[in-house]
């Protein structure tokens, strides 16, 4: 087993009493002494600080980088204005999802943030798939996420101009003498900011943010329950190479110019399969939200059955939703069972627990749109 890597905040995590666990090749904080439930609730009510420096940060340079990236993703990158970011998917020739990522138009180049577990394969995929003359620069930077309804109040004290941004905007700022790249986005369903900072300045910035009364350090455990309540996919669980964007309910990530009848239809891996599924609506399964009864959580891997006892799918993420006050999950079911309000049953330790197909997100989003 290879030695675990450390983010620039590793020493700070230990100082704060974090419980560290292996995650995507890194020694990462799953929780702090506050505990997962209270960390979750604090982020929903005030403001949490997450270390997401394990994510891959890349720069794509070369001629027409947006056009080049569109050969690998179905998103509308050409139409992305400078200073904005967009969610995108790397797709396979079979129409499956290789990874999901964020793409920023930084002017003469693109800034990409990819999942930690897929970073090396994504870099190889980019270098293999892009035309000659394009360069991928792998950055050594920290990445902090400041999330929650009080995030803007905290940011207003440190970098008030950043608060003028709206959801999915991205700019470069100086935050109390530290050069940072800030996007107004996150993975919790709350308002917030993701802050890219030089590795050697990451700890100083984290300490400065934690000095604010509203801010608590939050681990991966609460990050997972927060994103689940927000209905956000986790790569390798809710989306993978065996899942198409249409099955995953991510049709919105297929840019309108990239669809049939659009300005630049297709041209990305798996386009024939994905565009056919959008038009024909003949995909066999669909990602749905599920609300349980009682307090017993339904975890990933639980099989789902219809009222007649026929197996119809599987849970891909699940747990108890602290903000919702009941078990929440997402998973895949046959299209016939995907209608809102449909009752299904999840098998947990030999018992079949009732769940209801429900809308996602399970909590109202707090994104700031101006």
Give a verbal description of the structure.
Helix content is 19%, strand content 33%. The chain has eight helices and 19 strands. The strands form four sheets. A six-stranded mixed β-sheet has the order 10-11-12-9-3-13, sandwiched between helices. A six-stranded antiparallel beta barrel has the order 14-17-16-15-18-19. Strands 5-6-7-4-8 form a five-stranded antiparallel β-sheet, covered by helices on one side. Strand 5 and strand 6 form a beta hairpin. The longest helix has 11 residues.
Beta-strand segment tally: 19
Summarize the helix and strand pattern as letters. HEEHEEHEEEHEEHEEEHEHHEEEEEE
Low-confidence stretches: none
| Content of β-strand | 25-35%
Structural class, by secondary structure, is alpha+beta
Average of per-residue pLDDT values: 97
**Overall spatial form:** globular
Major β-sheet annotation: 6 strands, mixed
Give the % helix. Answer: 10-25%
Strand arrangement within the widest β-sheet reads: 10-11-12-9-3-13
The Rg value, from CA coordinates, equals 21 Å
Q: What separation lies between the terminal Cα atoms? A: 48 Å
- Tally of DSSP helical segments: 8
């Amino acid at each position: 087993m290879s030695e675990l890597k450390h983010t620039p905040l590793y020493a700070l995590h230990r100082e704060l009493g974090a419980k560290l666990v292996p995650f995507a090749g890194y020694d990462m904080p799953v929780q702090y002494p506050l505990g997962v439930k209270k960390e979750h609730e604090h982020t929903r009510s005030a403001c949490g600080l997450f270390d997401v420096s394990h994510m891959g940060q890349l720069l794509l340079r070369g001629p027409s980088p947006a056009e080049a990236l569109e050969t690998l993703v179905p998103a509308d990158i050409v139409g992305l204005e400078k200073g904005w970011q967009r969610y995108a998917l790397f797709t396979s020739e079979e129409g499956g999802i290789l990874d999901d990522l964020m793409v920023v138009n930084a002017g003469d180049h693109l800034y990409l943030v990819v999942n930690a577990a897929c970073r090396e394969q994504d870099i190889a995929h980019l270098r293999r798939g892009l035309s000659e003359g394009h360069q991928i620069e792998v950055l050594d930077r920290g990445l902090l996420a400041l999330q929650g309804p009080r995030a803007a109040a905290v940011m207003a004290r440190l970098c008030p101009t950043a608060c003028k941004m709206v959801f999915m905007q991205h700019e470069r700022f100086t935050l109390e003498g530290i050069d940072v790249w800030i996007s107004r986005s996150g993975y919790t369903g709350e308002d917030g900011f993701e802050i890219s900072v030089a590795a050697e300045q990451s700890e100083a910035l984290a300490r400065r943010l934690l000095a604010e009364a509203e801010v608590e350090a939050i681990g991966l455990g609460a990050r997972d329950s927060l994103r689940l309540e927000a209905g956000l996919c986790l790569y390798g669980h809710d989306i993978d190479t065996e899942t198409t964007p249409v099955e995953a309910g991510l049709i919105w990530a297929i840019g309108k110019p990239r669809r049939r009848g659009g300005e630049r239809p297709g041209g990305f891996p798996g386009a024939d399969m994905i565009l056919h599924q959008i038009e024909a609506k003949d995909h066999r399964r669909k990602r749905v939200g599920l609300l349980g009864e009682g307090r017993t959580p339904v975890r990933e891997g639980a099989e789902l059955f219809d009222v007649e006892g026929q197996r119809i799918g599987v849970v891909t993420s699940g747990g108890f939703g602290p903000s919702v006050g009941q078990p929440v999950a997402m998973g895949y079911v046959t299209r016939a069972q995907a209608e809102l309000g449909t009752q299904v049953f999840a098998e947990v330790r030999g018992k079949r627990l009732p769940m209801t197909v429900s809308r996602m997100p399970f909590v109202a989003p707090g994104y700031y749109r101006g």
